[in-house]
Amino acid sequence: MTAEMFPKEKTIDLRKKHIGPSCKVFFSHDPIKIVRAKGQYMYDENGVRYLDCINNVAHVGHSHPMVVKAGAEQMELLNTNSRFLHDNLVQYAQRLQATLPEKLSVCYFVNSGSEANDLALRLAWEYTGHKDVITLDNAYHGHVSSLINISPYKFHQLANAEQSKSVHVALSPDLYRGNYRQDHPDPATAYADDVNNLIQKAHEKGHKVAAFIAESLQSCGGQVIPPAGYFQKVAQHVHQAGGLFIADEVQVGFGRVGTHFWAFQLQGEDFVPDIVTMGKPIGNGHPMSCVVTTREVAEAFKNSGMEYFNTFGGNPVSCAIGLAVLDVIEKEDLQGNALRVGGYLMRLLEQQKEKHPLVGDIRGRGLFVGAELVRDRVKLTPATAEAQDIIYKLKEQHILLSADGPHRNVLKFKPPMCFSEEDADMVVEKIDQILTVEVEIQKSEPF
Amino acid sequence: MTAEMFPKEKTIDLRKKHIGPSCKVFFSHDPIKIVRAKGQYMYDENGVRYLDCINNVAHVGHSHPMVVKAGAEQMELLNTNSRFLHDNLVQYAQRLQATLPEKLSVCYFVNSGSEANDLALRLAWEYTGHKDVITLDNAYHGHVSSLINISPYKFHQLANAEQSKSVHVALSPDLYRGNYRQDHPDPATAYADDVNNLIQKAHEKGHKVAAFIAESLQSCGGQVIPPAGYFQKVAQHVHQAGGLFIADEVQVGFGRVGTHFWAFQLQGEDFVPDIVTMGKPIGNGHPMSCVVTTREVAEAFKNSGMEYFNTFGGNPVSCAIGLAVLDVIEKEDLQGNALRVGGYLMRLLEQQKEKHPLVGDIRGRGLFVGAELVRDRVKLTPATAEAQDIIYKLKEQHILLSADGPHRNVLKFKPPMCFSEEDADMVVEKIDQILTVEVEIQKSEPF
């Protein structure tokens, strides 16, 4: 099947001419043109099928017919702003709320994870009257200017990075490569104490902390799974300082972690954030997103006197699509699938770790899995070039995977939630083949 | 036709429970529930038809079949991010570029006017290395935190508003109510000199100006039409200070002004902004938006070393919808319609001005028209309550109009572009009836 308008070379030329050069393509040496997709598969202009291990946005599967139908039917009927009453808006808010702890009851609908996290900051600033924000090292929270400020993953890239004086970077609670590791008696407390130290230092300078923000599991930061109890301890310190806890679920929410609908719930029922932000998977690719908070925070924000209006946020089409995504997750038991297939994938990858010294660590929850590659299992020297090489070789075999983390050495699995055990078999088998050759290269030409 | 799931009272209750209380509804005393819309008409749950004079987002008409079809077909095929090559993206960029002066050739696709204006600031900061921004009084540029800072329309609402030291507010170039009016010999120079004064004051404090930002015609600021030549003179001052000129076309672009496709073009062919931001009408309600700039600015942004990635921005569905909107504007000559019907509407309103002392000023271009209501034509006392009253009375007669501007006394027409002369007749006739009674009230009970 061909569904292209221009030959690939022309597409590349026009892209160079008219699209901002800061907007990168995957596999820049030989980018892929995708013309259609279904489930966990994408197809290029020549009909070649790629197994998609990376598009967590296409949460319930690319072009899911129930989602497409819901969107198309509502577009035909009405698409307007939320200053008019509409049942889709309130029904959707009600359905989202039902997945969350009871006190998280008030929604704001926006268009992207960036808009959601920026609004979360505005809510925290207004509620607390404080200004400072504590963020994790290697965190990424979005592309608008307020979020670049709290995203070390981004601002470390800048030549002349000047860190805002009201932003404090806490240690990433990484048990593999971080300051406190698997062998530490109580890493949750140790990492939470680091947050508390930052709070105390901020206080010494006369600053006050509005919020601690973290992805419930760090994604770009390297598929980091914080130790159990960490969020509770951090929340205690932050609340004591009058600040709020913002859980960023943009990458990891909506059942991906398998055992729970939200990744922050992995920390236990006794933990409830003050603000939760949602994004990417929420609309299966449709531009939409949401912030949920408590009645108290919402009322404080209202009392500032400023209306909040978002032109597209919460429109009937976005809400119809959001409802359809929730329906499909339930109907197809995709959370259960994430648990089963994610577990299966982890076991396969653990076998790779036993077989190939390059595979240093396997970690994940459900269909959010990372395989960290190292040249040396003691020094943990990041195998960055090797990770890139694997990604490119997999692409040649029509499998889409990416490498991320501060050293770009973590193979990152976050496929559509309909990913199957056969898909897991296929990708791990190919990785095994590549690593087997790779190991030979390493033996003859050590790095 | 009824297409509701809940009785209206239940919708209102759920909204109170689950939607942020800062998110206002139209006609809060008796909000409207809209269940479908077509062209310039919206329908409530009882099938009552409303004439829509306000939804500039539904640019080519609510639920336009060509736009719906383009969106639905592309959703069925593929919706993914712009790290994959896709022809819709480059074709759409090419088509947009063709509407603009040649040097505005590089696009960034984002999801909302707010994301667009925030990115415009990031581009200006990076290109110039400067920090300060000059904005117009009463301006509104979006809801993310960086834009609240440059939106006096918003930050004036705050009880404890603290204006950022790097933001300077210039006089709104309002020839009716501003510092320099119709009777001034050269208001363009006078208003531009005010901008220059702000630049000089910033320099005295050791600050440097990154950008001047203005809507090409101020919308929330009160439907203000800047005098011819104003932008050229401002651009000269700003460029001399090493800053950039950002034209915000989020409300007024895409042919609405009738004579031109972009409202900044009203200033003459010798004026070209450095950055143009687009939004609302671009996707007929679909969440999408764009920033266009020069090659030089784009390269400087790239050279910062930071990738720009926007998860949903420029996805194939958004681009298909954007292309369809451009097609419909052309095919149905909606720009021509805006010119013809807008002119007709202006003439009808001018007659109202002659007839009713409350109507102080009629101003506009194409289907972007304001009628400013005053209690006294010399003192220009804003007729705020009267404007609200008219809006509510029109609503009772099933016509949707709004009042805006710093005094909320400007009746604001920005209907879908398929608005007809009959529609104009209908709304002005109703306004005439209301004003006739109003005037009687005024005679018996003067304000």
Can you offer a commentary on this structure?
Chains A, B: It holds the Pfam family Aminotran_3. Chains A, B: Belongs to the class-III pyridoxal-phosphate-dependent aminotransferase family. Chains A, B: Keywords: Lyase, Mitochondrion, Pyridoxal phosphate. Two copies of one chain form a homodimer. With 447 residues, chain A is α/β, with parallel strands linked by helices. Chain A folds into two domains: 8-60 and 333-444, Alpha-Beta Complex (Aspartate Aminotransferase, domain 1), CATH 3.90.1150.10; 65-331, Aspartate Aminotransferase, domain 2 (3-Layer(aba) Sandwich), CATH 3.40.640. Chain A is 38% helix and 16% strand. Chain A is built from 13 helices and 15 strands. Chain A has helices at residues 8-18, 65-77, 87-97, 113-128, 145-148, 152-155, 187-204, 230-240, 295-303, 316-331, 334-355, 384-396, 421-444; strands spanning 34-38, 41-44, 49-52, 106-110, 132-136, 167-170, 209-215, 244-248, 275-278, 289-293, 359-365, 368-373, 399-400, 402-404, 410-413. Chain A has a seven-stranded mixed beta sheet with strand order 4-10-9-8-7-5-6, with helices on both faces. In chain A, strands 1-2-3-13 form a four-stranded mixed beta sheet. In chain A, helix 2 runs antiparallel to helix 10, helix 4 packs across helix 9 (295-303) and helix 11 (334-355) runs parallel beside helix 13 (421-444). The longest helix of chain A is centred in the last third of the chain and has 24 residues, at 421-444. Chain A starts with 7 loop residues before the first helix and ends with a helix. The mean pLDDT of chain A is 95. At the A-B interface, helix 1, strand 1, helix 2, helix 3 and strand 4 of A face helix 1, strand 1, helix 2, helix 3 and strand 4 of B.
